[in-house]
Design goal:
- This protein is elongated.
- It is mainly α and 328 residues long.
- Helix 2 (24-36) runs antiparallel to helix 3 (40-53), helix 3 (40-53) runs parallel beside helix 5 (77-90) and helix 9 packs antiparallel against helix 10.
- Helix content is 70%, strand content 0%.
């Protein structure tokens, strides 16, 4: 009871909205006692105060998690979200902080799912907040595993809502911060989906921007060079086509196809062996070769011959390929 009296006295002497001159562990202990008594609302408040006053990151985060759980169980989700966010931002250096913000994002998601169509403005506010939290995670802690999950989730949200440009740029932003070769595929997948929807001038402008960013990252980070060189084979315009290191036996079928595509685009051969090539590579290579033909009319003959009979081509694509291969 003495501990409770000390805590209650301290709460009557607030400095702004924070307690002062009380050991945070004492406040937390009182909050945990209230939890055991079945009073989650008051317990959440005490645990929040303890979390915000505690200097030790591990302890502060532990209090924050308990406070958020108590607040959520008492129906005060906003307080649950806020304590998780606040403590994570106070202890940015902690490896647990990005997961704390992810937990707050999951609580926001619950609010989105529970909101009705009649509350569209409120739902939109929740959606914007979720976006901001996910961006905060991968911008503040790009090297964490949580950051990768956050960016993947955000890109999925953008894609499902038809915002392919936002998804592409978000993936590129995260890749620019994290610089991991394994994360490049998300960038190229989303950028291809975005670029393939654009007309030639708009696609050229956006592709130039992407190319410049990836080339700069390649110069800055040696481990990215090989991966970005391969991307250049099926994505970059001819002026930015990287030279591939060939001449060795390659077992990876994707790599073999990209090497053959490189030889075709660089004028070394005039045909491609498409047997066993995955549909997605066929789709990307077809898009790339069509762009080459439109950008450089002198290459239309060779490219047209390669595209004649291309699997799953539209009627218009077949007519175009035939015209390029045998102009009248």
């Amino acid at each position: 009871r003495r501990a409770e009296a000390i805590v209650l006295a301290a709460l009557r002497k607030l400095n702004g909205s924070r307690i002062v001159n009380v050991n945070p562990s004492l406040v937390a202990a009182q909050g945990e006692d209230l939890l055991r008594r079945g009073q989650p609302g008051p317990a959440a408040s005490l645990l929040r105060e303890a979390a915000l006053a505690e200097r030790d990151a591990g302890k502060a985060i532990g209090y924050a998690v308990k406070s958020a759980a108590a607040a959520e169980s008492s129906g005060d989700r906003e307080s649950a979200i806020e304590v998780l966010e606040s403590v994570a931002r106070r202890h940015v250096a902690s490896s647990q902080s990005p997961e704390l913000v992810m937990q707050s994002a999951l609580l926001v998601l619950k609010s989105i799912r529970e909101s009705t169509s009649e509350a569209a403005p409120k739902r939109l506010k929740h959606v914007d907040r979720l976006r901001e939290l996910l961006e905060e995670i991968f911008q503040t802690w790009p090297g964490s595993k949580t950051a990768d999950r956050a960016n993947e989730w955000l890109c999925e949200l953008f894609t499902k809502s038809g915002r392919t440009k936002d998804a592409a740029y978000s993936a590129l932003e995260y890749f620019s911060l994290a610089k991991g070769p394994k994360r490049l595929s998300r960038v190229t997948d989303l950028w291809f989906d975005y670029l393939s929807q654009l007309d030639l001038p708009d696609a050229t402008r956006e592709l130039d921007s992407l190319t410049g960013t990836l080339q700069e990252l390649s110069r800055e980070t040696t481990e990215l060079v090989g991966s970005i060189d391969l991307v250049s084979v099926w994505l970059f315009d001819p002026a930015n086509l990287s030279r591939l290191d060939e001449g060795r036996e390659v077992e990876d079928p994707d790599r073999r196809f990209l090497e053959s595509l490189y030889r075709l685009r660089s004028g070394q051969v005039d045909s491609l062996n498409l047997e066993g090539v995955e549909r997605e590579w066929l789709r990307r290579a077809h898009w790339r070769l069509k762009r080459d033909a439109l950008i450089d009319p002198s290459r239309q003959g060779a490219i047209g011959k390669a595209l004649v009979g291309w699997p799953e081509s539209s009627e218009w694509d077949r007519i175009s390929a035939q015209f390029w291969a045998e102009p009248t």
